[in-house]
Design goal:
The structure holds two protein chains of two kinds.
Chain A (H helix, E strand, L loop, with lengths): L5 E8 L10 H16 L8 E2 L9 H8 L6 E2 L8 H14 L5 E9 L6 H5 L6 H7 L7 H16 L3 H16 L12 H6 L2 E4 L1 E2 L8 E10 L11 E9 L18 H12 L8 E3 L5 H11 L7 H6 L16 H5 L5 H12 L12 E8 L3 E9 L1
Parallel strand pairs in A: 2-3, 2-4, 9-10
Antiparallel strand pairs in A: 1-7, 1-8, 4-7, 5-6, 8-11, 10-11
Helix pairs in contact in A: 7-10, 9-10
Chain B lengths: L2 H4 L5 H6 L19 H8 L4 E5 L5 E2 L14 E5 L3 E10 L13 E8 L4 E5 L12 E10 L2 E8 L3
Antiparallel strand pairs in B: 1-2, 1-3, 4-5, 4-7, 5-6, 7-8
The chains are: A alpha/beta, B mainly beta.
Bound molecules: zinc ion.
Zinc ion binds next to loops of chain B.
Chain lengths: ~375, ~160
């Protein structure tokens, strides 16, 4: 049981941009140093590292550059965009069993200047199952693979593109408050509706950004974090879940059910709280529809009711469940959701600036990746 | 293994800049494995072959080495009768691969076959007629470089 065994002790981000001018390794080191110093630790205190698979950077790069004397734990969590939150689970497990004391979880990428994410993704082993059969008929990019999930939802439940627009517009509103977001101009529903179709029903403004930059968090064993610089943000619960037919969306019996539907009940049970206790949520938003579907699979509303739930304004800053208060992948930057964890920690510390949710004490962060893998963590300030 | 997948693809601006048919790179062709070879050979004969577990009879798709129900590696191949219904779809407007630049927009269907598995393949017909559950019929198309690919058209009735 990982309940309250570990805390997030430090967070760090670089500036987000379309052209960092730095190497991916340099970006890793920069955000890692920021997170480690934020925690009040020295880089040599790090004794566990979970790098993001696919950036080319490995744990030993940090050993080399920081002179870490005794790295006791390293692992990767290959769940695509669900990796950073899944890495929290991996870190919490390693910390709870006493393997190590302070785990660094970094990600950095030149996702805008370094080449197309859509094409790079298909090189990953997670896509091997479908690549042989679906690339030749013209199904390549995440937008094309996820669009039929959204279409099925729309046809079954009456979900609309205008409801997707509310997600995009609301997220942009929050990005404008952030100060380190790539998108800084307001977005209107009309602009969303007029944006070009990428893979019907997903329009350009239903799709996330491609970004350069880095973000990192440090997870510490609870008893090793009491005297650190920041108020510890406790991990009340963390879980990952894999959907049915995890390597082929096309073969999934229920196209509208993601892996997080399996993980969410485990996490809420571990945390010992109910949905009404969540003050703020950072929901992985590679595409608008994926936000809507996760809110249902998490249990914030019933399956099929995500559209009306979003349209009600519930997820706005002043609503009952403010989400993506930093601007998300849609409007802040695509840091594979590490920026979602960073933002939730800031919210719970009370340092989220103009997007601060008043009295935020308990929050939830999710990850979503590959063909529907999911992860979530429930965090709290004591 | 995956030769096309390992190749560096053209950048987005490069795709945008391609205007003539002559400049278009070839579409990707499958990387055939020992498990999938009968499937591709069947398509060449205009048959959509599905794996049926020799142990328990469970039909599975895409082709793979083991039955997830009884774990048998013994397999027989059955021919799909070609009838199916639409589970969902997308209409691709942006070509994520330069080989598809002159095809957009194209509709890609997820079709529930009568045999209980799904096929992801293009629609040859008017996307305005798309609806969940609509009956479609399997057809076969030249996929280039000796491959035949599945596609669908609306059923006649
Ligand atoms: Zn079997």
């Amino acid at each position: 049981m990982l309940h309250r065994q570990s805390v997030i002790s430090g967070v760090g981000e670089t500036a987000y941009s379309k052209h960092s001018g730095n190497s991916v390794l340099a970006l890793h080191l920069e955000c890692a140093l920021t997170a480690i110093r934020d925690a009040g630790l020295d880089p040599k205190d790090i004794d566990g590292i979970i790098p993001y698979i696919g950036t080319g950077v490995v744990a030993e790069d940090f050993v080399t550059n920081f002179g870490i004397p005794d790295l006791r734990f390293s692992a990767t969590t290959p769940l695509g965009g669900a990796s950073p939150v899944a890495a929290l689970q991996c870190a919490a497990a390693a910390l709870a069993t006493g393997i190590c004391r302070h785990v660094l979880i970094p990600i950095a990428r030149n996702g805008a200047s370094g080449g197309r994410i859509a094409s790079r993704m298909r090189e990953a082993p997670q896509f091997r199952t479908v690549a042989e059969f679906e690339l030749p008929v013209g199904a390549f990019a995440p937008a094309q693979l996820y669009a039929p999930m959204a279409r099925r939802h729309m046809e079954l439940y009456g979900t609309t593109s205008l409801q997707f627009a509310e997600i995009a517009v609301n997220t942009r509103r929050h990005a404008i408050l952030n100060g380190n977001a790539m998108m800084t101009k307001p977005l209107t529903v009309e602009e969303h509706q007029a944006s070009r179709m990428i893979a019907d029903p997903l329009r350009l403004f239903d799709c996330s950004l491609e970004s350069d930059g880095g973000a990192a968090v440090v997870v510490s064993r609870a008893d090793c974090a009491r005297d650190l610089r920041q108020p510890p943000i406790a991990i009340l619960a963390v879980a990952e879940g894999h959907p049915d037919s995890p390597s082929a969306i096309s073969q999934r019996a229920d196209l509208t059910r993601l892996g997080i539907a399996k993980a969410a009940p485990r996490a809420f049970a571990m945390a010992g709280i109910s949905h009404a206790d969540i003050d703020v949520a950072e929901i992985y938003d590679c595409f608008t529809y994926i936000v809507l579907c996760q809110l249902e699979d998490l249990g914030f509303c019933a399956k099929g009711e995500g559209g009306p739930f979003i349209a009600s304004g519930a997820t706005r800053l002043e609503g009952k469940l403010p989400i993506n208060t930093h601007g998300g992948l849609l409007s802040q930057a695509h840091m594979v959701g590490m920026n979602h964890i960073v933002e939730l920690v800031k919210q719970l510390r009370g340092t989220a600036g103009r997007a601060q949710v008043k009295d935020a004490r308990v929050g939830l962060v999710t990850g979503y990746g590959d063909m529907g893998d999911g992860s979530l963590a429930i965090l709290a300030r004591d | 293994m995956a030769t096309w997948a390992m190749a560096v693809w053209p950048s987005w601006p490069a795709i945008e800049a391609m205007n003539t048919h002559a400049e278009l790179p070839a579409k990707p062709v499958p990387d055939v494995t020992p498990e999938s070879a009968p499937y591709w050979e069947g398509l060449r004969q205009h048959k959509l072959l599905l794996q049926a577990c020799a142990g328990c009879g469970q039909i599975r798709h895409y082709p793979r080495a083991v039955c997830a129900t009884c774990y048998s590696i013994a397999v027989t191949w059955i021919e799909a009768n070609g009838a199916g219904t639409i589970q969902s779809w997308t209409v691709a407007h942006h070509p994520f691969h330069p080989g598809f630049k002159i095809e957009v927009p194209y509709a890609l269907l997820l079709v529930d076959l009568a045999e209980g598995v799904r096929v992801n393949a293009p629609l040859r017909g008017d996307p305005a007629g798309l609806q969940l559950g609509r009956a479609v019929r399997l057809i076969f198309e030249n996929g280039g470089q000796g491959f035949v690919l599945p596609a669908f058209e609306y059923s006649a009735e």
